[in-house]
Amino acid sequence: MSGNFNENKILSVAEIKELWSKTYSSEGKPDWSHIFPYYHENIVFKDSIQRIEGIEKFQAMCKRLSKRCKSLEMHIYHIIKTDNLVMMDWKMTMSFRIFPKKPIFGATRLTFDDSGKIIEQRDYYDLWGDIYDGIPIFRRVYRWFMRVFFG
């Protein structure tokens, strides 16, 4: 793969796996700079805690996450692609400053526009459930709360 954005071409499954796998590393900080050219200037990013619009705000969010993380790894399990939509499920293992590594399981939906750029990214994950599962007292309380009120 050349690493250059190809106008009117949606990334292949192999290209997505290669690009996203290079983003995260068990050694050193994550780096998203090589995937930014594949995003539309009006990207809409949403996850469990935020909604961000525009490439500059998206890049700033990535920079903040990189700054906060001591380490960040991602393992992509599956990628499924249709005409302009990609879904992938993953395990992200991260550690913040003094805290040990903690896995978070989730999925990402990428929507491509007609020119092949990512116009929308939606990340799905249960941040608090995955974090609280590692803390015995919080795990029981959180899982009880979720079961009683949502299950």
What does this structure look like?
This protein is α+β, with helices and mostly antiparallel strands and 151 residues long. The protein is 30% helix and 36% strand. It is globular, with a radius of gyration of 17 Å. A six-stranded mixed beta sheet has the order 2-1-6-5-4-3. The chain has a single domain (13-125), classed as Nuclear Transport Factor 2, Chain: A (Roll), CATH 3.10.450.
Strand content: 35-45%
The helix-and-strand class reads alpha+beta
Helices, by number, come to: 4
User: At the first level of CATH, what is the class?
Assistant: Alpha Beta
Compute the gyration radius: what is it? 17 Å
Mean pLDDT: 83
User: What gap, in angstroms, lies between the N and C termini?
Assistant: 45 Å
Q: How would you spell out the order of helices and strands?
A: HEEHEEEEHH
Major sheet: size, sense and barrel closure? Answer: 6 strands, mixed
Secondary-structure map:
Blueprint: H1 13-23, E1 39-46, E2 51-53, H2 55-68, E3 69-81, E4 85-96, E5 102-112, E6 118-125, H3 127-132, H4 136-150
Parallel strand pairs: 1-6
Antiparallel strand pairs: 1-2, 3-4, 4-5, 5-6
Short description:
This protein is an alpha+beta fold.
Which structural traits does this protein have?
151 residues, alpha+beta, Nuclear Transport Factor 2, Chain: A, six-stranded mixed β-sheet, 6 strands
